[in-house]
């Protein structure tokens, strides 16, 4: 029964859908997949351990936490709030759109940064929150949506502009994959045909953010 | 120099181990958390893996991950109550420091980007950049705030502990992806789809490829992994072999996959990490903000590929 090893995917989909403990779900899915694919237990544990150690790089952001903690306890948010309150014309959408442009320009020049850690948490979210707070008091739900939107804008800018750089990981992967599939393409071609998508993303997300401002223009408090 | 980059990376992992160990010790001491032993154990076990990852046999590390999974399953990993930032202290510091409080963040960005450009550091340049950026920006922050050692310690343990087990999720998912690959899950699913849909119609082929890229990225959490599998299984037979321009198909196929990345909790680095980092209540909050744009862009890309490729 070859198909049994697809159970790992089922576990992941159900686990995330039913909001079970995510760490437990992922570990169980990995064990189930390995066992059903016929790995013996020592092989499975070795695969698990080796992959985890080789992927430590994903958790590098922990190193930035002491600095972020320190500036947070020394008034990062307070300063952002003061600053935005002085610049009344800077609405939430203008901050978000400015950041979107910065992120897409970074993509064009091949500057990849971990925006969520370096910008969204310490800078963009406090600024957008402060800009929205000028209009009316914010509810817990508002705060969550502002955080979600700030993180989303980082992802939009990051994803759809990164292939505009000819030596980016995505472009290199496409070129090598297509070559091995016997339909060779060049990096420059890939960049060229990524431009329409990058432009559509820029325009659509900018309008989406301007729409986001509307909810804070209500003078009365939200639910 | 590339070897120098490797050594720096190892030092950085040891430092992360040190940070996690601090979080572990402080979690055990937080007796008001009913799961304080389990939570402390979780951080200490991780600390060991980060600091000594390449020294310990991989099978033992695998066993440790199973133990962490069991702790999580029995709800023994909990953030608990953590003393928040003192608002009075923050307000006073804000007056004294002013706009310079952003300076360490700017230093982190500039230094990590600058170091990432040092090609001689090898393929790890980007990662070494984040580490050096973090170290330099922390020194700048200490000079700026004149914070005593005790405060640096307190803020570090507060930050790590509040990220909680969500902080380790991206790495666990990357691990799961590797297990999927080792078990041949990707090739099997691709084969299944190729059996169900017949080739021939241009528009249907384009829709099938773009949607499959998005759906497989949703399942695997990684558009790069989906691209290699789905382009071979669907993109070539159903679209390129029907006379489409391969560059258009490949370029837009990849970004169609990114629409899937925007929709899936499996892409934890992008969608779950911010939830932890920003301390959001809604675990799907980032994905909810992304969903309308992701679906719209997927439709746009289907049209673009159909128009430009044929």
TrEMBL record, chain A:
One Pfam family hit: DUF969
Keywords: Membrane, Transmembrane, Transmembrane helix
Residue spans crossing the bilayer: 7-37, 57-76, 159-178, 190-211
Superkingdom of the organism of origin: Bacteria
Matches recorded under InterPro entries: DUF969
Coiled-coil region: none
Protein name stated in the entry: Membrane protein
The organism of origin for this protein: Schleiferilactobacillus harbinensis DSM 16991
Automatic annotation (TrEMBL), chain B:
InterPro entries: DUF979
Ranges annotated as spanning the membrane: 7-28, 40-73, 97-116, 128-147, 168-194, 206-236, 248-270, 290-309
Natural source organism: Schleiferilactobacillus harbinensis
Protein name as it appears in the record: DUF979 domain-containing protein
UniProt keyword terms in alphabetical order: Membrane, Transmembrane, Transmembrane helix
Top-rank taxon, per record: Bacteria
